[in-house]
Design a protein that fits this description.
It contains 9 helices and 7 strands. It has about 240 residues and is of the alpha/beta class. It has a single domain, classed as Vaccinia Virus protein VP39 (Rossmann fold), CATH 3.40.50.150. The chain has a 7-stranded mixed β-sheet, sandwiched between helices. The chain is globular.
């Protein structure tokens, strides 16, 4: 893909998020329990600088701020999302832009995260290289990505999120792991995403479907990792 074609695709994705995805969403809310659980595995974040790539409305970063992070920074394609971040967290550093060219200095962050967004990026290797560039030595990374081995997807019962309308590249856990390794990251831990295990997820849609959704949510706690919908990857920089 030429640079011009890549930029054109990024602009189409930006338009989708500004006009459709965030155009219908409210402001930030309390971080869901499954995200708090994942964040807790990073340990004490007091005095740490945190960057979230494709930060959306900033809920994830707000959680770190409340736990003593020395600074929170975020970047998102959507100006609408960044406007909400700045209103909610005026002390943070929020920028509109793409993940492939992060507007932050080298070695600036102790924790770099990208939550359920990498699959929507135009140039994933470039974005990962940028995350490594802005990370300090010893930094920790958390990447939440979808799994093409998700059992419901394999059975033809799930076709993707709302963002699939514009761009959503879903890969197997092995393929994601290979991409991370090739980009200079080593996966140290993986954790299943159990966000469907909540009343709000189970009670979406028609009440007649709630029992089926409840069964699926419970099944995720028992299914092997290879059948999960999304998986958190905790990473560190690979040894040179």
């Amino acid at each position: 893909m030429s640079a011009a074609d890549q930029q054109n695709e990024i602009e189409q994705i930006r338009k989708f998020y500004d006009e459709e995805y965030y155009g219908r969403k409210g402001l930030s809310r309390r971080l869901p329990w499954h995200c708090r659980r994942a964040a807790g595995l990073l340990g004490d974040v007091r005095g740490r600088a945190v960057l979230d790539v494709a930060c959306g409305l900033g809920d994830w970063l707000g959680y770190f701020r409340d736990r003593g992070a020395s600074g929170i920074s975020g970047i998102d394609l959507s100006a609408r999302a960044i406007e909400a971040c700045r209103a909610s967290y005026p002390s943070g550093d929020f920028k509109v832009g793409e993940a492939e060219t992060l507007p932050f200095a080298d070695a600036s962050f102790d924790i770099v995260t990208c939550m359920g967004s990498l699959e929507h990026f135009v140039d994933k290797p470039a974005a990962l290289r940028e995350m490594l560039r802005v990370a300090r030595p010893g930094a920790r990374f958390v990447l939440l990505v979808p799994n093409s081995g998700f059992l419901t997807r394999r059975l033809g019962l799930y076709s993707g999120t709302q963002q699939a309308k514009i761009k959503e590249d879903v890969q197997s856990l092995n393929a994601w792991g290979a991409l991370f390794n090739a980009s200079g990251l080593r996966v140290t831990r993986r954790l299943r995403d159990l966000h469907p295990l909540s009343v709000s997820w189970i009670t979406m849609g028609k009440p007649l479907n709630w029992p089926v959704r409840a069964l699926q949510a419970l099944a995720l706690t028992l299914w092997p990792l290879s059948w999960q919908y999304q998986v958190y990857h905790f990473c560190e920089r690979s040894a040179p």
